[in-house]
Amino acid sequence: MNFTGSKVEKPKDLSLKFPSVVQFMATDEITLTPDLTIDEAINIILDNKLTGAPVLNGDKEIVGMLTEKDCLRLLVDGAYNNMPYSKVVADYMTPMVKTVSADHDILDVANEFLTTNYRKFPVVRKGKLVGQVSRRDILKAIRETKTTTW
To answer: Which of 1, 26, 108, 129 has the maximum number of C-beta atoms within 10 A of its C-beta?
Structure first.
């Protein structure tokens, strides 16, 4: 008599593999520093047609984000509060920054975009900025990685 059980094959891994966000992020992004004057920052944003830029400390760690919306506070502060606006980026930036890890794939990032109002995320590795990914970058990823398994 043979009591050897039948061999059961391991099931195939059917989970989808999506490309890393690193493949589609921009790495030549313009950054600001907290001590830069707000006038200089606005000029950089306008001259480079940006919607915002990450603010980095001396160790290249993200300490904030300065967006077009943050800069609009200059007008409101001046008009309603009679405040001068000759201040620095640190006074206007958003200090709480939503980032994504360089370990994320494009599906993870697409989900983040769908559940937030952000247009762009800084991409970090070990707390340091390595790039930025925008909604448009994810759209390019979709176009380049078309697959029939989606």
So the answer is: 129
